Amino acid sequence: MKVVVTVGSDAHEVEVERVAEGYRVTLDGQVLEVDARALTGAERSMRIHGASHVAAVTEGADGELTVQVAGELHAVRVEDAARHAIRTRGGAAGAQGQTLKAPLPGKITLVAVRPGDAVNRGDTLLVIEAMKMENELKAAAAGTVSEVHVAPGQAVNPGDVLLVIA
Questions:
Q1: Would you call 25 helix, strand, or coil by DSSP?
Q2: Phi, psi of 149 (to 5 degrees)
C-alpha cells in the first residue's frame, strides 16, 4: 500500500508491506522494519529497528490524526498517494496565471467554469474521474478563468493542460 503522510508542511511517501515479523515500511526511500501493536485505547507500541516507542493516536472529525510521541504532539494526515497527487498538484497554487494540469490519467466528468468566469478560493473548477474515483479540482485562490482546454467525457493524461486562471 502506497500512501503520503503529511506532518505539518512536510509530505513523505510511505509504502507499507506486511511481512512475517510485522511490517516493512519504506519511508522516502529508506527501509524500516516495524513491529506495531495496539495497547489500550489510542495507544500503540512500535518497535522500529529494535528501538521501542509508544504513541497515542486519535482521529479528528476531519480525518486528521493527532499523534503524541515522547510528549510531543504532531498533526498527521495520511492519504492515498493518488489522492495526494490530485489534491496537491491538481489545484491552482494561488499565483495569478496558474495553469491547471491533470495530475493523473482520467476522464473529465464536469467542467464547472467557462472563460471569463470569476472564481474564488475553494470553488469547484472541474471534476476528473481517476482510478474509479471522482475528484473535484478546486481553486486555491481567486482569479478569472482565461482558458478552458477540456470538455466532459474527454480523456486526459498526466500533465495535460486543463484550464488557465489569470
A1: strand
A2: -105, 5
Which CATH code fits 90-165? 2.40.50.100
Handedness of CA 4, 89, 151, 155 (dihedral sign): negative
CA 166/CA 164 separation, integer angstroms: 6
Query: Which CATH class, in words, describes the domain spanning 2-80?
Result: alpha beta
**SS3 call for 52:** strand
Residue whose C-alpha cell reads 500533465 in the numeric block:
159
pTM over 0.85: no
**Per-residue pLDDT tens for 77-117?**
888 877 777 666 654 444 445 778 887 788 999 999 999 99
Q: Are 6 and 81 in contact (CB under 8 A)?
A: no
Question: Which H/E stretch holds residue 12?
Answer: strand 10-19
Q: DSSP for 99-161?
A: EEE-SSSEEEEEE---TT-EE-TT-EEEEEEETTEEEEEE-SS-EEEEEE---TT-EE-TT-E
In angstroms, the CA 118 to CA 112 distance is: 12
Domain boundaries, the chain: 2-80, 90-165
Spell out the residues 6+ positions from residue 89 whose beta carbon is closer than 8 angstroms to its own: 101, 103
